[in-house]
Write a structure and sequence with these properties.
The protein is α+β, with helices and mostly antiparallel strands. The chain has 8 helices and 13 strands. The relative contact order is 0.15.
Length: 320
């Protein structure tokens, strides 16, 4: 591995000072032959030859605001959402690059605090921060992270492999994610590995836009339908009596359409699914919430026995 050149000191403030701080904070990594400070990073790339690439952008005022989130939480989330996408492909993250547009007049400390949250999660998941870009802007703060990874043995697992008869397995709980969970969630990398190792995993997706909306992504790509059981969908419980403000919607409605839960929804062949439910290979709760059926739509079996159509409810950015 090439030795990293010394970093000369720069004047306080400005883009270059922030880059210098990030470079010192990140340090070296076994996979990083050439890191921050050159025109491009050089990675020691593992086998196999194929790579997974995920990118996500957070915009102040759209995805977060600093009245309800610390800079460290925002930085952590910017990486976490990409790690969740890598998990949803049955992959292992290797490296990340970061692009930050910092509004003029915001101090250098804000950029440092954003990167502290990001680097902390990178270290915990053994992801190397390989480089990126910083700039100033007259608009809102924008933080974009790109993660590069490799498929696990048996991966990548796509949305298009679900088959009639598959069971639909869900990690964790759903709903009310805007109350801290969307800033604190753990990307389900270990769970994805265990599901992939089971040998019966046919399709996989992470719940970012809402259970119903993301289920339909699988149904559309796999050209199948689904039947869910409302009573078996795990609902996120409030941490205190005042955490969730009443808004007229049921807990089930929140679970189906809120989004930003970042749990995994997996289509698994029935025998393997039964074994996973009987003896889960990880501590995160795992629930069987329904099945894949022939067709092209979804229905929801209610606790009272009624079967109702389930449309693709969830969050979607409006571009007009």
């Amino acid at each position: 591995m090439s030795a990293q050149p010394p970093v000369p000191p720069r004047r306080a403030g400005g883009e270059f000072a922030l880059i210098d701080w990030i470079r010192r904070r990140v340090g070296s990594h076994p996979r990083l032959e050439v890191g921050i400070g050159d025109d491009a990073a050089v990675l020691s790339w593992p086998e196999p030859d194929s790579a997974l690439v995920a990118v996500d952008m957070l915009v102040e005022g759209v995805h977060f605001d600093f009245q309800h989130a610390t800079p460290e939480q925002v930085g952590r989330k910017a990486l976490a959402v990409n790690l969740s996408d890598i998990a949803a492909m049955a992959g292992r993250p290797v490296a990340a690059v970061v692009a930050l547009a910092l509004p003029r007049g915001r101090d250098e400390e804000l950029g440092q605090r954003l990167h502290e949250g990001l680097v902390g999660l990178a270290e915990a998941t053994e992801v190397v921060l390989a480089g990126g870009d910083t700039t100033s802007t007259d608009g809102p703060l924008v933080l974009s992270v790109t993660v590069i990874g490799t498929p696990l043995p048996g991966g990548p697992v796509l949305r298009s492999g679900a088959r009639p008869g598959d069971r639909l397995l869900l990690t964790g709980c759903l709903g009310q994610s805007r109350h801290r969970h969307h800033l604190e969630f753990t990307p389900r990398l270990d769970e994805a590995r265990a599901l992939c190792d089971s040998g019966g995993l046919h399709a996989l997706i992470d719940i970012s836009d809402g259970l119903a909306a993301d289920l339909y992504h699988v149904l559309t790509e796999s050209r199948v339908g689904a039947r869910l059981r409302a009573r078996d969908i795990p609902l996120r419980e409030p941490r205190s009596a005042t955490e969730y403000a009443p808004d007229g919607r049921t807990a089930l409605a929140h679970a189906i359409s809120d989004g930003e839960d970042f749990e995994l929804l997996a289509a698994v062949e029935p025998e393997t699914a039964a074994q996973l439910i009987a003896a889960p290979p990880f501590e995160t709760p795992l629930a069987d919430i329904g099945e894949i059926v022939a067709g092209n739509s979804a229905e929801l079996l209610m606790p009272d026995g009624r079967s109702v159509p389930l449309p693709p409810l969830g969050y979607e950015h409006q571009l007009d």
